[in-house]
Write a structure and sequence with these properties.
binds zinc ion, 13 helices, binds 1,3-dihydroxyacetonephosphate, single chain, 8 strands, eight-stranded parallel barrel, 13% strand, binds glyceraldehyde-3-phosphate
Amino acid sequence: MLFTNRELLLAAKQKVYAIGAFNIQNLESLLAVVEAAVEEKSPIIVAVTPSAIKYGGLNYLASMVKVAAESSPIPMSLHLDHGEDIETVSKCLEAGFTSVMIDGSHLPFEENVALTKRVVDLAHAKGVSVEGELGRLSGVEEKTVEEREAVLTDPEEAEEFVKQTGVDALAVSIGTSHGAYKFKGEPQLDFERLRLIREKVDVPLVLHGASSVPAWIIEKASKYGAELAGAKGIPEEHIKKAIALGITKINIDTDLRLAFTATIREVLANSPKEFDPRKILGPAKEAMKEVVKGKMRLFGSSGKA
Ligand code: G3H
Ligand code: 13P
Ligand code: ZN
């Protein structure tokens, strides 16, 4: 059955665990996250970005997720990740999404509030929950103190943002970034900032850019020809600490992509005569599924469905 993120995340917040928002873009990635959730008895957020919609088609993707929700014994939501504008949000609402993110994090505060508030009004009228974002997700490693302050979430502003917009969840910037190259040196997150935000904000908090870029996947991909020198993610211990400090939704895309494509490389290299897509994509889906199951255990959502 499909639930809203609000319903799923309030339960997680109460019991101090986090729910994974896993990005999908095709049948294989959807099967990987849903099968993992069923096997781990975990709730899941199935996340779809505007570029995934461009690739897979809104109605194809939404219909597949609805079929998955009807036929799986786990609570699930269908979530628009990084919605950019009212038009995309409206189309997703029509297509039956149960949660939408509006990402106005690149806008000045007042404009971000205004855009997010419009989405809240539209979505809440349909009983759909909304995630907003305050602070930008760019690497902060080589930035000055002033530059860091400009991109990381300000706790006081976060309080004001939630009050003025009525969002159901807030994505915060504490030093993570999207993709496989998050840090050049030691991974560092601003946990003190997260603690202060939690004190000021009562809605569930969201961590984007949370992939760990596991060494074993990088080694496997590199063994079969990938060029990923310098790839580095968020250590699992940091993820545990972020959950203890109040993060209840964790977005993962990069680790799934890495696991999937490393396995495609492996199968193609080891079985050069193979040309049945199912024999190539099947093992890739299984590898993605194992990564998702590991995240559910790490986030504490296993057994919570
Ligand atoms: O923020 C989410 C993604 O990792 C970027 O996804 O390439 O589908 O836009 P995308
Ligand atoms: P990663 O690139 O770290 O997987 O982050 C994904 C994300 O934030 C999707 O919204
Ligand atoms: Zn993101």
